[in-house]
Each structure stands twice: as C-alpha cells, then as structure tokens.
Amino acid sequence: xxxxxxxxxxxxxxxxxxxxxxxxxxxxxxxxxxxxxxxxxxxxxxxxxxxxxxxxxxxxxxxxxxxxxxxxxxxxxxxxxxxxxxxxxxxxxxxxxxxxxxxxxxxxxxxxxxxxxxxxxxxxxxxxxxxxxxxxxxxxxxxxxxxxxxxxxxxxxxxxxxxxxxxxxxxxxxxxxxxxxxxxxxxxxxxxxxxxxxxxxxxxxxxxxxxxxxxxxxxxxxxxxxxxxxxxxxxxxxxxxxxxxxxxxxxxxxx
Length: 255
Description:
Helix content is about 50%, strand content about 10%. It contains nine helices and seven strands, in the order ααααβββαβαβαβαβα. The protein is elongated, with a radius of gyration of 20 Å.
C-alpha cells in the first residue's frame, strides 16, 4: 500500500460516517469483552458526533472560517496580468471505458468554468491544469484528470494550444510543487474551491509559488427550502462538515 493510499484511508476513517461505523463496531467489541459501560459510551459518542455534524448550522460554522479567508485573499488579488491560470485537480473524473465512456463533472467543476472565464477576459495567456490519477495496477495506463480538464476547457472555448497539462500530481502538495517547477517565480492565478483555497495558498507560499487567489465553489448548508430544514439532519450538511474537517486536518498535517 502506498503512502498516498494509506493517508487517504487514515483520514477518511476519522471522518463521518466511517467514524460512526468504526465507533459502533468498537463499542460492540468492548461490550462483548465485558466492558459494557465503555462500549455504550463509545457507541453514543460515535452516533452523536454524526448527528451533530449533519446539522446545517454546524456545517456552516465549520466552513465559514475557510471561506472567509478565501474571500479576503480574493479581494487582495489583482485582476491581471498573470503568467498562467492554474487549476488544481479535483474538478472532473476522467473517462474509464467501457464503464465510464466520457469524463464526468464533480461538485468542484465550477473551478474549470472560473478558469475559462479568467482566460477569456485576459487574466493570463495560458491555463495549467494539474491532476494525475492513481492506479493500483501499474500495467494500466489510465487517462489523467488533467487531460479530462483539457477536454472540458476546449468545450468552454479555450484553445487547445494554450492549455498545459501536469499529469503526475496526486494531491495538493504535488499540484503546487509540479506547477512551481513549470512557472518558477512568475505570478499565477490559482483557481480552486473556496474552502480549499486557504490550504492551497499556505502550501504555495511554502513551496515558492507566487499565487493569487481566485476561489470558486462557495458552499453553504443552510438557507434553502423551508426554515426548519436548517435544523434537521441532512446528508448534505454531513458532507459539508466532512469537507471542512478534512481541510482542518490537512492544514495541520500537510507539512
């Protein structure tokens, strides 16, 4: 098992709903071993954690500091003129024929639209798309995420010859490192999700990438539907809480 896969597994195991499943399982084992009170406490905590994180006010409170920092950085960024628009991976799933015949957009695909708009308004003369693909089978030659992003940007009217693919990166640390090797100290317009921008900028500044923030995909759990929906648990709120917690964990350990 590679370090990349191990860290992904470890991180996801600490997040709901996986953490709830593991907590209930651990509680059950403790009860079988005679530690009934400890087992019940572990089960209750695991279930309560998932319930609390599935509430819209909690999800929005967790997300707010991340997006506030992205908003402040975006206001400080000049509108042009950059060496390149850099789009971080995570926006599109590459095709995997015959199961998946064409690339598929992900929730973070707003960043591709943002990149196309920046290019069309003259913010930079080229776009760098960064994102590889992990394959457990080294004999496979899967299509990279960067290549899938190129196809979508072409459909948005971006000429093929102004798009540069970086196809090795598997995470944000590698995204930034490989892009920095391409552009050196030239300024770039960095495009990623608002909740991810704080971490991306910290890594960029540590790695010597001269990046300005152009965030997209602003995420909010509350405010939709009838008022009481904000106070009922939902899968959407749980997902947003999970995304925010993942960013906080990564901010602590992405060194």
